[in-house]
Predict the 3D structure of the following.
Amino acid sequence: MKKLLNTLYVTQPDTYLSLDGDNIVLLKEQQKLGRLPLHNLEAIVSFGYTGASPALMGYCAERNISISFLTESGRFLARVVGQSRGNVVLRKTQYRISENEKESTMVARNFIIGKIYNSKWILERMTREHPLRVDVEQFKSASRLLSIILQEVRDCANLESLRGWEGQAAINYNKVFGQMILQQKDNFVFHGRTRRPPKDNVNAMLSFAYTLLANDVTSALEAVGLDAYVGFMHTDRPGRASLALDVMEELRGIYADRFVLSLINRKEVTADDFYRKENGAVLMTDDARKSFLKAWQTKKQEKITHPYLGEKISWGLVPYVQSLLLARFLRGDLDEYPPFLWK
Protein backbone atom coordinates (compact mmCIF):
# COMPACT_ATOMS: atom_id res chain seq x y z
CA MET A 1 0.00 0.00 0.00
CA LYS A 2 1.40 3.40 -1.04
CA LYS A 3 -0.17 6.86 -0.92
CA LEU A 4 1.07 9.39 -3.48
CA LEU A 5 -0.50 12.69 -4.54
CA ASN A 6 -3.76 11.82 -2.74
CA THR A 7 -3.94 8.50 -4.58
CA LEU A 8 -3.79 5.16 -2.77
CA TYR A 9 -1.98 2.37 -4.64
CA VAL A 10 -2.79 -1.16 -3.46
CA THR A 11 -0.01 -3.37 -4.81
CA GLN A 12 -0.38 -6.43 -2.55
CA PRO A 13 -1.94 -9.33 -4.47
CA ASP A 14 -5.26 -10.91 -3.43
CA THR A 15 -6.33 -7.90 -1.38
CA TYR A 16 -10.00 -7.13 -0.71
CA LEU A 17 -11.03 -3.50 -0.21
CA SER A 18 -13.76 -2.74 2.32
CA LEU A 19 -15.30 0.19 4.17
CA ASP A 20 -15.30 0.87 7.89
CA GLY A 21 -16.85 4.21 8.77
CA ASP A 22 -14.91 6.82 6.77
CA ASN A 23 -11.92 4.51 6.27
CA ILE A 24 -10.77 2.05 3.64
CA VAL A 25 -9.65 -1.27 5.11
CA LEU A 26 -7.41 -3.72 3.24
CA LEU A 27 -8.08 -7.40 3.95
CA LYS A 28 -6.29 -10.56 2.87
CA GLU A 29 -7.80 -13.88 3.92
CA GLN A 30 -9.80 -11.97 6.59
CA GLN A 31 -6.59 -10.50 8.01
CA LYS A 32 -6.36 -6.70 8.18
CA LEU A 33 -3.36 -5.40 6.22
CA GLY A 34 -3.99 -1.70 6.57
CA ARG A 35 -6.45 1.10 7.23
CA LEU A 36 -6.51 4.64 5.85
CA PRO A 37 -8.94 7.59 6.11
CA LEU A 38 -10.79 8.27 2.84
CA HIS A 39 -11.44 11.98 3.29
CA ASN A 40 -8.06 13.03 1.83
CA LEU A 41 -8.10 10.60 -1.11
CA GLU A 42 -8.92 11.47 -4.72
CA ALA A 43 -8.40 8.00 -6.21
CA ILE A 44 -7.67 4.34 -5.41
CA VAL A 45 -5.71 2.10 -7.80
CA SER A 46 -5.78 -1.63 -7.05
CA PHE A 47 -3.38 -4.09 -8.72
CA GLY A 48 -4.27 -7.78 -8.70
CA TYR A 49 -8.05 -7.43 -8.54
CA THR A 50 -9.80 -9.46 -5.83
CA GLY A 51 -12.72 -7.17 -5.13
CA ALA A 52 -14.19 -4.23 -3.30
CA SER A 53 -17.28 -4.05 -1.16
CA PRO A 54 -20.41 -2.40 -2.60
CA ALA A 55 -20.41 -0.13 0.45
CA LEU A 56 -16.91 1.15 -0.37
CA MET A 57 -17.72 1.66 -4.07
CA GLY A 58 -20.91 3.55 -3.16
CA TYR A 59 -19.11 5.72 -0.62
CA CYS A 60 -16.35 6.58 -3.11
CA ALA A 61 -18.81 7.21 -5.97
CA GLU A 62 -20.76 9.71 -3.87
CA ARG A 63 -17.58 11.59 -2.96
CA ASN A 64 -15.98 11.50 -6.42
CA ILE A 65 -13.18 9.13 -5.38
CA SER A 66 -12.42 6.90 -8.37
CA ILE A 67 -11.47 3.23 -7.94
CA SER A 68 -9.42 1.65 -10.74
CA PHE A 69 -8.90 -2.11 -11.01
CA LEU A 70 -5.90 -3.53 -12.83
CA THR A 71 -4.39 -6.97 -13.19
CA GLU A 72 -1.27 -7.74 -11.20
CA SER A 73 0.78 -7.10 -14.36
CA GLY A 74 -0.80 -3.66 -14.76
CA ARG A 75 -3.40 -4.23 -17.49
CA PHE A 76 -6.36 -1.91 -17.04
CA LEU A 77 -9.65 -3.69 -16.23
CA ALA A 78 -12.24 -1.18 -15.08
CA ARG A 79 -12.79 2.11 -13.32
CA VAL A 80 -15.60 2.95 -10.90
CA VAL A 81 -16.58 6.62 -10.77
CA GLY A 82 -19.59 8.58 -9.62
CA GLN A 83 -21.34 11.39 -11.47
CA SER A 84 -19.18 13.07 -14.10
CA ARG A 85 -17.80 16.15 -12.42
CA GLY A 86 -14.03 16.44 -12.42
CA ASN A 87 -13.15 14.04 -15.22
CA VAL A 88 -15.32 15.67 -17.86
CA VAL A 89 -13.53 18.97 -17.27
CA LEU A 90 -10.15 17.23 -17.34
CA ARG A 91 -10.85 15.51 -20.65
CA LYS A 92 -12.35 18.63 -22.23
CA THR A 93 -9.12 20.45 -21.33
CA GLN A 94 -7.10 17.61 -22.85
CA TYR A 95 -9.15 17.69 -26.07
CA ARG A 96 -8.92 21.48 -26.35
CA ILE A 97 -5.14 21.50 -25.98
CA SER A 98 -4.77 18.64 -28.47
CA GLU A 99 -6.51 20.81 -31.10
CA ASN A 100 -4.19 23.78 -30.47
CA GLU A 101 -0.70 23.27 -31.90
CA LYS A 102 0.97 25.95 -29.82
CA GLU A 103 -0.41 24.60 -26.55
CA SER A 104 0.26 21.00 -27.61
CA THR A 105 3.88 21.90 -28.31
CA MET A 106 4.26 23.46 -24.86
CA VAL A 107 3.18 20.18 -23.27
CA ALA A 108 4.86 17.79 -25.69
CA ARG A 109 8.29 19.38 -25.52
CA ASN A 110 8.53 18.44 -21.83
CA PHE A 111 8.05 14.78 -22.79
CA ILE A 112 10.95 15.12 -25.24
CA ILE A 113 13.09 17.06 -22.79
CA GLY A 114 12.69 14.10 -20.44
CA LYS A 115 13.57 11.64 -23.20
CA ILE A 116 16.73 13.47 -24.29
CA TYR A 117 17.87 14.23 -20.75
CA ASN A 118 17.55 10.56 -19.80
CA SER A 119 19.31 9.43 -23.01
CA LYS A 120 22.20 11.74 -22.15
CA TRP A 121 22.30 10.34 -18.60
CA ILE A 122 22.49 6.78 -19.99
CA LEU A 123 25.47 7.68 -22.19
CA GLU A 124 27.30 9.52 -19.41
CA ARG A 125 26.77 6.62 -17.03
CA MET A 126 28.23 4.16 -19.56
CA THR A 127 31.44 6.23 -19.84
CA ARG A 128 31.81 6.23 -16.06
CA GLU A 129 31.05 2.56 -15.47
CA HIS A 130 32.66 1.00 -18.57
CA PRO A 131 35.40 3.40 -19.81
CA LEU A 132 37.52 0.53 -21.18
CA ARG A 133 34.66 -1.18 -23.05
CA VAL A 134 33.11 1.73 -24.95
CA ASP A 135 34.51 4.52 -27.12
CA VAL A 136 34.46 7.24 -24.46
CA GLU A 137 35.14 10.08 -26.89
CA GLN A 138 32.33 8.97 -29.19
CA PHE A 139 29.95 8.76 -26.23
CA LYS A 140 31.04 12.19 -24.97
CA SER A 141 30.54 13.65 -28.43
CA ALA A 142 27.05 12.15 -28.61
CA SER A 143 26.29 13.52 -25.15
CA ARG A 144 27.42 17.03 -26.13
CA LEU A 145 25.21 16.93 -29.22
CA LEU A 146 22.25 15.83 -27.07
CA SER A 147 22.87 18.87 -24.85
CA ILE A 148 22.68 21.16 -27.89
CA ILE A 149 19.48 19.47 -29.09
CA LEU A 150 18.04 19.72 -25.59
CA GLN A 151 18.40 23.50 -25.70
CA GLU A 152 16.75 23.65 -29.12
CA VAL A 153 13.83 21.57 -27.83
CA ARG A 154 13.33 23.96 -24.91
CA ASP A 155 12.82 26.78 -27.44
CA CYS A 156 10.59 24.81 -29.84
CA ALA A 157 7.38 26.61 -30.77
CA ASN A 158 5.78 24.12 -33.17
CA LEU A 159 5.34 20.36 -33.43
CA GLU A 160 7.18 19.99 -36.74
CA SER A 161 10.39 21.39 -35.26
CA LEU A 162 9.91 19.35 -32.10
CA ARG A 163 9.55 16.12 -34.07
CA GLY A 164 12.61 17.02 -36.12
CA TRP A 165 14.83 17.60 -33.10
CA GLU A 166 13.48 14.46 -31.41
CA GLY A 167 14.41 12.49 -34.52
CA GLN A 168 17.93 13.95 -34.54
CA ALA A 169 18.37 13.04 -30.88
CA ALA A 170 17.21 9.46 -31.54
CA ILE A 171 19.63 9.05 -34.48
CA ASN A 172 22.50 10.38 -32.36
CA TYR A 173 21.64 8.07 -29.44
CA ASN A 174 21.17 5.00 -31.64
CA LYS A 175 24.62 5.46 -33.20
CA VAL A 176 26.24 4.39 -29.92
CA PHE A 177 23.49 2.13 -28.59
CA GLY A 178 25.16 -0.99 -29.97
CA GLN A 179 28.30 -0.33 -27.91
CA MET A 180 26.24 -0.68 -24.74
CA ILE A 181 25.82 -4.37 -25.58
CA LEU A 182 28.80 -5.69 -23.62
CA GLN A 183 28.14 -9.44 -23.85
CA GLN A 184 27.10 -11.88 -26.61
CA LYS A 185 28.17 -9.36 -29.26
CA ASP A 186 28.06 -11.91 -32.10
CA ASN A 187 24.41 -12.74 -31.51
CA PHE A 188 23.12 -9.33 -30.40
CA VAL A 189 24.06 -6.69 -32.93
CA PHE A 190 22.34 -3.32 -33.26
CA HIS A 191 22.71 -1.24 -36.43
CA GLY A 192 19.58 0.86 -36.00
CA ARG A 193 15.91 0.66 -35.11
CA THR A 194 13.74 -1.65 -37.24
CA ARG A 195 10.10 -1.98 -36.24
CA ARG A 196 7.51 -3.62 -38.45
CA PRO A 197 8.88 -6.20 -38.45
CA PRO A 198 12.00 -6.22 -36.21
CA LYS A 199 14.95 -7.59 -38.19
CA ASP A 200 17.29 -8.74 -35.42
CA ASN A 201 17.31 -10.05 -31.85
CA VAL A 202 17.85 -6.65 -30.22
CA ASN A 203 15.01 -4.99 -32.11
CA ALA A 204 12.70 -7.90 -31.30
CA MET A 205 13.33 -7.29 -27.59
CA LEU A 206 13.01 -3.51 -27.88
CA SER A 207 9.68 -3.81 -29.70
CA PHE A 208 8.32 -6.15 -27.03
CA ALA A 209 9.54 -3.88 -24.20
CA TYR A 210 8.00 -0.79 -25.83
CA THR A 211 4.69 -2.64 -26.24
CA LEU A 212 4.67 -3.56 -22.54
CA LEU A 213 5.59 -0.01 -21.53
CA ALA A 214 2.86 1.45 -23.77
CA ASN A 215 0.30 -0.85 -22.16
CA ASP A 216 1.42 0.20 -18.67
CA VAL A 217 1.22 3.91 -19.55
CA THR A 218 -2.19 3.45 -21.21
CA SER A 219 -3.53 1.84 -18.03
CA ALA A 220 -2.06 4.62 -15.92
CA LEU A 221 -3.65 7.36 -18.04
CA GLU A 222 -7.05 5.67 -17.96
CA ALA A 223 -6.75 5.26 -14.18
CA VAL A 224 -6.37 9.02 -13.64
CA GLY A 225 -9.25 9.86 -15.99
CA LEU A 226 -7.32 10.94 -19.11
CA ASP A 227 -8.03 9.72 -22.64
CA ALA A 228 -5.01 7.63 -23.63
CA TYR A 229 -5.95 7.90 -27.32
CA VAL A 230 -5.76 11.70 -27.68
CA GLY A 231 -2.17 12.91 -27.66
CA PHE A 232 -0.29 16.17 -28.05
CA MET A 233 2.73 15.18 -30.15
CA HIS A 234 1.53 11.87 -31.63
CA THR A 235 -1.44 12.64 -33.85
CA ASP A 236 -4.80 10.92 -33.54
CA ARG A 237 -5.08 7.60 -35.35
CA PRO A 238 -7.79 4.96 -34.87
CA GLY A 239 -6.63 2.34 -32.37
CA ARG A 240 -3.42 4.16 -31.41
CA ALA A 241 -2.94 5.27 -27.81
CA SER A 242 -1.35 8.57 -28.83
CA LEU A 243 -1.13 10.13 -25.36
CA ALA A 244 0.44 6.93 -24.01
CA LEU A 245 3.09 7.18 -26.75
CA ASP A 246 3.68 10.81 -25.74
CA VAL A 247 4.11 10.09 -22.04
CA MET A 248 6.26 6.99 -22.54
CA GLU A 249 8.87 8.94 -24.57
CA GLU A 250 10.70 10.02 -21.43
CA LEU A 251 10.71 6.42 -20.14
CA ARG A 252 11.83 4.59 -23.32
CA GLY A 253 15.56 4.78 -22.69
CA ILE A 254 15.73 4.84 -18.92
CA TYR A 255 13.15 2.08 -18.47
CA ALA A 256 12.81 -0.12 -21.56
CA ASP A 257 16.24 0.23 -23.24
CA ARG A 258 18.20 -0.34 -20.05
CA PHE A 259 15.99 -3.31 -19.22
CA VAL A 260 16.73 -4.94 -22.59
CA LEU A 261 20.45 -4.23 -22.27
CA SER A 262 20.53 -5.78 -18.80
CA LEU A 263 18.94 -9.02 -20.04
CA ILE A 264 21.53 -9.30 -22.81
CA ASN A 265 24.53 -8.31 -20.71
CA ARG A 266 23.54 -10.64 -17.85
CA LYS A 267 23.00 -13.42 -20.42
CA GLU A 268 19.43 -13.95 -19.31
CA VAL A 269 18.55 -14.24 -23.00
CA THR A 270 20.57 -16.07 -25.66
CA ALA A 271 20.44 -16.55 -29.43
CA ASP A 272 18.34 -19.70 -28.88
CA ASP A 273 15.47 -17.53 -27.62
CA PHE A 274 14.74 -16.16 -31.12
CA TYR A 275 13.66 -17.42 -34.52
CA ARG A 276 13.40 -15.87 -37.97
CA LYS A 277 10.29 -16.04 -40.15
CA GLU A 278 10.28 -16.30 -43.95
CA ASN A 279 9.65 -12.56 -44.33
CA GLY A 280 12.80 -11.78 -42.32
CA ALA A 281 11.02 -10.88 -39.09
CA VAL A 282 12.82 -11.95 -35.91
CA LEU A 283 10.58 -13.00 -33.03
CA MET A 284 11.05 -14.29 -29.50
CA THR A 285 10.05 -17.85 -28.69
CA ASP A 286 7.08 -18.45 -26.39
CA ASP A 287 9.35 -19.53 -23.53
CA ALA A 288 11.54 -16.46 -24.03
CA ARG A 289 8.50 -14.18 -23.88
CA LYS A 290 7.41 -15.77 -20.62
CA SER A 291 10.86 -15.25 -19.13
CA PHE A 292 10.89 -11.67 -20.45
CA LEU A 293 7.52 -10.95 -18.84
CA LYS A 294 8.65 -12.43 -15.52
CA ALA A 295 11.77 -10.27 -15.53
CA TRP A 296 9.68 -7.22 -16.51
CA GLN A 297 7.41 -7.75 -13.52
CA THR A 298 10.43 -8.15 -11.24
CA LYS A 299 11.88 -4.90 -12.60
CA LYS A 300 8.64 -3.10 -11.80
CA GLN A 301 9.02 -4.02 -8.12
CA GLU A 302 12.45 -2.37 -7.78
CA LYS A 303 12.41 0.71 -5.55
CA ILE A 304 13.62 4.13 -6.66
CA THR A 305 13.35 7.68 -5.38
CA HIS A 306 11.12 9.70 -7.68
CA PRO A 307 13.19 12.71 -8.85
CA TYR A 308 10.29 15.19 -8.62
CA LEU A 309 8.40 13.92 -5.58
CA GLY A 310 11.46 12.85 -3.62
CA GLU A 311 9.57 9.76 -2.38
CA LYS A 312 10.47 6.08 -2.69
CA ILE A 313 8.24 4.19 -5.12
CA SER A 314 8.55 1.13 -7.33
CA TRP A 315 9.48 1.45 -11.01
CA GLY A 316 6.05 0.05 -11.83
CA LEU A 317 4.36 3.11 -10.31
CA VAL A 318 6.35 5.62 -12.36
CA PRO A 319 3.80 5.68 -15.25
CA TYR A 320 1.02 6.30 -12.72
CA VAL A 321 2.85 9.14 -11.00
CA GLN A 322 3.65 10.79 -14.34
CA SER A 323 0.01 10.42 -15.42
CA LEU A 324 -1.13 11.99 -12.15
CA LEU A 325 1.29 14.89 -12.62
CA LEU A 326 0.01 15.40 -16.17
CA ALA A 327 -3.59 15.40 -14.94
CA ARG A 328 -2.71 17.92 -12.23
CA PHE A 329 -1.08 20.17 -14.80
CA LEU A 330 -4.13 20.00 -17.07
CA ARG A 331 -6.36 20.87 -14.09
CA GLY A 332 -4.22 23.93 -13.38
CA ASP A 333 -2.75 22.62 -10.12
CA LEU A 334 0.79 22.74 -11.58
CA ASP A 335 2.29 25.50 -13.74
CA GLU A 336 4.10 22.97 -15.93
CA TYR A 337 4.20 19.23 -16.47
CA PRO A 338 7.33 17.89 -14.71
CA PRO A 339 9.00 15.21 -16.87
CA PHE A 340 10.71 12.21 -15.29
CA LEU A 341 14.37 13.32 -15.16
CA TRP A 342 16.40 10.41 -13.87
CA LYS A 343 19.55 11.07 -11.84
Summary: The domain at 6-80 is CATH 3.100.10.20 (Ribosomal Protein L15; Chain: K; domain 2). The mean pLDDT is 89. Residues 101-129 form the longest helix (29 residues).
